[in-house]
Each structure stands twice: as C-alpha cells, then as structure tokens.
Amino acid sequence: MTARALAHTLLRLSPGLTLVVFLAPIVAGLVGTILPAFGFLPALGGDSLSLDPWRRLFETPGFAAALTLTLTTGWSATLVSMLVAIGMAAALHHRPVARRLGAWIAPALAMPHSALAIGMAFLILPSGWLARALSPWLTGWSRPPDFSTVGHESGWPIVLALALKEVPYLMLMTLGALNQIPAAAQLRAARALGYGPSQAWLAVVLPQVLAQIRLPAMAVLAFSLSVVDVAMILGPGNPPTLAVLVVRWLGDPDPRLLFPAAAAATLLLALVIASLAAWRAVEAVAQATLGRWATRGARQPAIGHAADIAAGAGITLLALTAASMLSLALWSVATRWRWSDAWPEGFTSATWMRQADSLAGPAATTLALGLAATLIALALVLACLEREAQGREGKPSRSLALLYLPLLVPQVAFLFGLQILLVRFGIDGSFGAVLWTHLVFAIPYLFLSLADPWRSYDDRYSRSALSLGASRWRVFWRIKLPILLPPVLIAAAVAFAVSAGLYLPTLLAGAGRIATLTTEAVTLSSGADRRVIGTWAMLQAAFPLAAYGAAVAWPALFRRLRRW
Amino acid sequence: MVMSTLHLQQIAITIGGRHLIHDLSAKIAPGDCLTVMGPSGCGKSSLLAFVSGTLDPAFAAKGSVALDDRVLDAEPPERRRLGILFQDDLLFPHLTVGGNLAFALPASVQGRAARRRRIEAALCDAGLEDFADRDPATLSGGQRARVALLRTLLAEPEALLLDEPFAKLDMALREEFRRLVFAHARMRGLPTILVTHDEADARAAGGSVLKLATI
Predict the structure, then answer these.
(1) pLDDT number for residue A392
(2) What burial class does residue A319 get, using C-beta atoms within 10 Å of its C-beta: 0-12 exposed, 13-18 middle, 19+ buried?
(3) Distance from CA of B119 to the nearest CA of A (A)
(4) Does B136 touch chain A (CB under 8 A)?
(5) In a domain, B55, yes or no
(6) Test mutation, A193, A198, A208, chain B, max B CBs within 10 A
C-alpha cells in the first residue's frame, strides 16, 4: 500500500475511529457501573443480581441530605448561570462594550474549575481576602468571624463557583448562536415598533436562541449535578454531594463499599437523565411564556432595569473570577499575611523555590498528557472534518448529540465502571489509560470549537489551488490549514485547557499513581498552608491560560513577521 | 387621529471627515412623501438611520428631527413612534403571522378576544383572511411584505420611513405593494420619507424628490 493510499484509507475510517475512541470508554464504563449497582461484580464475590447495594445506599446516614444537596446545587447553578448570561446579553448587546465581551470572558473560560474554586475559597473564607480587606473598618471583626462559608451545608459556594465558570461559557454559546440569525436587523425592527433594546432582545432574539443553546445548557446542568472537584473544595463534608460520596467510597480501603458506590453513581446517572428531561420541559414553558408575553404588546421599559441588574451580577461574577485568580497569585508570593491586613507584608519567591522540585514532576505530566491528548484529538477531528468536507455525506447535526454525550453523562457514572475494567485488564494507573480518558473530553470540545470555522471555509481557495496542479494533500497543508490556522490553534488551546483541568478522569484512570497539577492541587486544597496551595493552583491555571495566549498571539506574530 | 408634520432641520452627516449629507432641511406634511434618491454609498440609508435614532456611532451627525414640536433627537429609537419598512420584511420567524401583528399592536387594546379581532380585521383589509395562525415561512414574498406593512401600521406610528422596501419584490408585486403602502400613508396622514434608487418608486410616491450625489 502506498503512503497516499494509506492516508486515504485512514481518512475514510476516521469518523468511525473517532467515535470508538471517545464513545467506547463511556459505554463500557456505564455497563461497568450499572452491573455492580445490582450486585454483579465477580471479582468481589458478587455473582448474582440483587438490590442489596441500593438498600445499603438508602440506609447510609445523610443520604437524603446528600441527594437534596446534589439537586439544589446543580439546578441553582444552572438556572442562575442561564438567567445571568441571558440578562447580560439582553442588557449589553446594543452597547459598545458587547464587542469586547469575548476578550473579557476568554480567561475565565480557560481557568480550570478546581483552580477557580481554590481561588474563590481564598476569597470567601472567614479568614479570606474579602474579610481581610473589609475588616475591621467596615465589619468590626477583630478576628476571623465564626461562621462557615466554604463547606456551608446549603452548598452556596458550589453554586457561586460553578456560576463563575458557566456564565462565560453560556455567554460564548449565546454569542455563537446569534451568528445564525439576522439579530441586528430584527432588533432594529422591534425597536421601531416601540420596544426598548432589552425587551426587544428577550422577546425577539431569545426565543430563537434558546433552542440553539439547548445542548450547551444541558451540558451545564449535567456537569453541575455531578461535579466532583468543586464540590470537594467548596462543599460541605458530611454529607457531601452524591458525586463526592461516590469518589469517597471508591477511595475507601473497604472494597465492599464499591457496591453502594456503584448504586450511588447509577442513581446520579438517573438523576441527570431525569433532570435533562425536566430541562426540556422548563425550556418549553419558557418558550410558551415568552410567546404569550410578546403578543400582549406591552412595551415595558422596566425590563431594561431588570436586565441591567442581571448584567451587574454577571460583571460582579467576572470581577470575582479576577479576584480569585489574584488571590492565588498573591498567596503564592506572600511573605507574611496577617489577619485583617488587606495585603501581604512583602513578596518573595521563596515558596515557589521550595515547591519547585515537587511541582516539576506533575507539571511535566500535565504538559505531556495535554500535548498528547491535543495532538491526537486534533488529528482525529481534522480527519473527520476533512472527510465530511470531501464526502458531503453524513449530516453534521446527527452527530452533534453524540459529540455532546461525554458532556452529558456524569463523569463519575462511567469513570467508576471504567476504572473497574482498567483494573481487570491491569492497565489502571498507566499513562495510556489516563490519556484515553482525556481524549473522551478533548475530542468533543475540540470538534465543537473547530467545526463552525472549518465548515465556513470558502472552498474556492482549494479549488483554485487544485486547478493550478497542486495535489489534494498539498492543498490541505499549504492552503487550507494555513488559512484556518487561527481557529485551529484556538481549538487546540481549548482541548489542552480541558485536559489540564480534568480531575476525576485523571484520578480514577490514574489510580492515584499519575499526578497532575490538578489532582495535586485538589488534594492539597484541604491542607493548611495557603502559600503552598497558591503555587499549585496558580501553576495549574497558568498552563491553560498560556495555551490560550499562545493561540491568540501566534498568528498575530506571524502576520507581523511577514511584513518584514 | 393625530396628524403631525415631520421636520428635518439642518442635518449633516459625515464619516471619517467625508461629507455624506450637507445641511439638509425639509418639512414633510401629513400624508406627504419626501423621496431621497442616489446611488449606494451616498448616505441615504444613513439619513434614515439618523432620523430613526439608530445611526452607527462611527458617523458624526448634526441637525434635528421633530414631529410637530416634539423634538426627537434625545429620544431612543423605541420612543420616536416612527414606523420603518426595511428591504427585508423581518417577520419574526418564531411567531405566527398573528403573533407578529400582536407584538406590534399596543397593549392598550386589551383582552385576548379584542386583540384577536383587531388583528383579524387588519388581515382581512389586506386580503389575508385566515392568515393569523400561519407560520410566516409559509407565506409568499408579496404576502410577507403586506404582513410587514400591517405590523408597522398596527404600532400606530406618527411617521413612516421606507428603506427601499420594494427593491426585493418582483415587478408585478412591486407595483401593487407600492400602491398599498402609499394609500395607507395618505389615508392615515403619515409624513413619509422614502429612500430608493428606483425612479419608478419616486414617481409612485408623488412628492418632492431629493437627489443625493456621490461626493
């Protein structure tokens, strides 16, 4: 077989191969979770089906509270994020600031959830930066007050931290959906009919956008219901959320706890499925309400104020994100930072120097995993998109739901079973096993961020190059890829950021033997020394931020060099 | 019915130091139409954007717009009560034909049944009986144009701005739709500004014609 024939065969097989790479672990993992939930796990003597794991789960002290906490935090985070993102879009779309919004939210998108959660903890703890900055002159506290923020039984810090991440994500998805409709012209028409800008956006644009951001919104809901690292860092300890409970039981030396853990993971899967169905109902009710509202003909200037309040909340969230980042940075270089001083006494690189040796290994692993996952995912996604462009077959929309599957299935529900399978085959704790679980998430994110730019490529460039006698292969490398380089780099940065921020997949597939900056930072976060935690979380956040920065800067640098 | 005169006073629009419109003043009486003609890029659409309050901040504009003695310059677009017909009908795709019209109908018409009656009467007048529950996507170009006109008029504007609304219709429809638009404008006594590059539009409008040149 010649090299060209081989390349052609690989291209033809790429869609199937890609599907297998990122769907097989999910399917196998789900089976591996559901069977033990009904007592079937021969390695531990469970060779017949029973409801015993469920009985043990329901009898666990605090089970009802854990269930309630899971549902309230997951749903509140999603609803709050949706309302704030929608309010921001409605209030800001007609203002000049809207054009710069994308640049503001990019760093928030790149931040790993766990680094942001740690930074937020540094901010909101009773001895945190906020209390220090406001004490004693405003609060009157001469000592850190005696109440809980982080770990509060209601779980509000989880909701807040998730909103910090999900509002920018939903904003980005909304901005993307806006490109599909003639929003600006429709808004002009609605304003000429007497509607203020915010009401016009809510009545005319939002109903068309809602259906388009359904899958991203569902991904937010599924993620919020099943998040582990954020809930470990900021949530209550006893009882924790269901997802944290599963991870805790998995780490327990008593292997019999695997059975109720499997039942809890399966229950979480059922909760997510039911919640996604409920989301469809919420969306339908919202659509019907918006429709009735529009046809009442009421011009309500007050809507503008309501949207402004939501936008204010959104901007506060962005400010909190920035302050969380800054608090990580400050602690990592602080000499001494006494209670109620707004700033550390001095700055030093001593903590970084002391931590350098222990940081190096996990940093190298993070980099290696991220680069490998990004390159493999990029190769597979580029092959799929090229196959689609050449073949003009396979409706893109049909594969979209499949692409979202890794973002809709709770991580713990399939990673649990996957870990059991990995142990069974003796490959748990290997670099390859962790890399594969990273691909499960890197592929869909990379595909989703690259597909639109790739599909909107003007194919006449390629056709004119072909007519000049260049081969397909050469046209791809010399014409199409260079033209699409900026979105390719951004998509690669997205994949790298996803990989660098993954906690649970790394922890479970790595069997605790593969340490990345994220797994170490989360483990350390319950420890005491904020300077040390600061260095880990800071470096953890620096990797994806640097990847984004490089992705944006590289093409610009290239253009400048070419002028010489 | 309130009938107002639309006053344009000493309007000047520039972009990047280039004069598009220089010292334009006009008085448009109820039912009259001012036609502004010129090739693309001459600033005629910018003039409409200025009058309606949606001019891009990249332009610098001076001058004043008033309906009788109500000065509009500081009013946001939605408070000016200027009905606009665009080149595209811009019917909202997520609402039915009736929904689009109800969106425009003031809330002072209260009650589901009363609103429905008003909308059906308007549709009936325009030869579109039983169209209230139709999806706009199922309508022909001419039908969509008529619904767009109805929608604009139901909002009870005090003046009408026409931004080449006939350009995209084919010949036969264009003639008929022109007649309909100007008949309504005259009947309701709406001062009208028409922007076009089609001489036939100007003739049908019947009022004074202002020709803008490219500079």
Answers:
(1) 58
(2) exposed
(3) 11
(4) no
(5) yes
(6) A193
Kindly state whether residue A18 falls inside one of the protein's structural domains: yes
The 10s digit of each residue's pLDDT in A235-290 is 999 899 999 999 999 989 998 999 999 999 999 999 999 999 999 999 999 999 99
CATH assignment at residue A267: 1.10.3720.10
Give the C-alpha separation, B48 to B82, whole Å. 10
A139 lies in some domain: yes
In a domain, B105, yes or no: no
Same domain, A87 and A203: yes
Q: How does strand B192-196 pair with strand B159-163?
A: parallel
Domain count, chain B: 1
Give the domain extent around B59.
6-81+157-211
Q: Could you tell me which residue, A468 or A392, shows the higher pLDDT? A: A468
Amino acid occupying residue A243: A
CA dist A194 and B103 (Å) reads: 10
Residues A179 and A235 in one domain: yes
- Mean per-residue pLDDT over chain A, rounded: 92
Asked if B197 contacts B40 with a C-beta cutoff of 8 angstroms, the reply is: yes
Say whether both A196 and A288 belong to one domain.
yes
Same domain, A376 and A340: no
Bridge partners (DSSP) of residue B85 are B162
Mean pLDDT across the stretch A363-370?
Answer: 97
* Structural domain boundaries, residue A199: 54-348
**Helix locations, A211-336, DSSP H:** 214-226, 229-234, 242-250, 258-296, 302-332
| Length of chain A, in residues | 564
The single-letter code of the amino acid at A78 is: T
| pLDDT(A493) > 70 | yes
A204 in B contact zone (CB under 8 Å): yes
Q: Cα torsion for A330, A331, A335, A341, to the nearest 10°?
A: 80
Query: Which pLDDT band holds residue A395 (cuts at 50, 70, 90)?
Result: low
Please answer yes or no on whether A193 and B77 come within 8 Å at the CB atom. Answer: no
Which of A401, A398, A366, A403 is CA-nearest to residue A381? A403
pLDDT tens digits, one per residue of B90-103 = 999 999 999 999 99
Q: Does residue B175 lie in a domain region?
A: yes
Residue A323, helix vs strand vs coil = helix
Say if A157 falls within a structural domain.
Answer: yes
- Enumerate residues 6+ apart whose C-beta is below 8 A from A218: A276, A279, A404, A408
Average pLDDT over residues A444-463: 91
Which one of B54, B88, B92, B103 would you mutate to disrupt binding with A, by most A Cβ within 10 Å of its Cβ?
A: B103
Residue A528, pLDDT score: 66
Please compute the mean of the pLDDT values over residues A197-210 and round it to a whole number: 96
**Best of B78, B88, B89, B158 to disrupt the A interface by mutation (most A CBs within 10 Å)?**
B78
| Average pLDDT score over residue span B128-154 | 95
Residues of B in contact with A203 (CB under 8 A): 103
Domain count along chain A:
2
Mean pLDDT of A406-434: 93
Of the pLDDT bands very low, low, confident and very high (cuts 50, 70, 90), residue A398 is low
Could you tell me if A27 and A161 lie in one domain?
Answer: no
Identify whether B100 is part of a domain.
no
**Averaging pLDDT over each range in A334-338, A437-441, A528-532, B1-5, which range is the top one?**
A437-441
Structure tokens at A403: 């692409």
Q: Could you tell me if A19 and A73 lie in one domain?
A: no
User: With an 8 Å Cβ cutoff, is A185 touching chain B?
Assistant: yes
Q: What is the reported pLDDT for B107?
A: 93
Closest residue on chain A to B58 (Cα)? A96
Q: How far apart are CA B179 and CA B184, in angstroms?
A: 9
- The CATH number of the domain holding residue B21 is 3.40.50.300
Asked if residue A158 and residue A74 are part of one domain, the reply reads yes
Confidence grade of residue A351 (pLDDT, cut at 50, 70, 90): very high
The residue from A348, A374, A395 where one domain ends is A348
Domain limit, last residue, from A348, A364, A396: A348
Question: Is residue A46 situated within a structural domain?
Answer: no
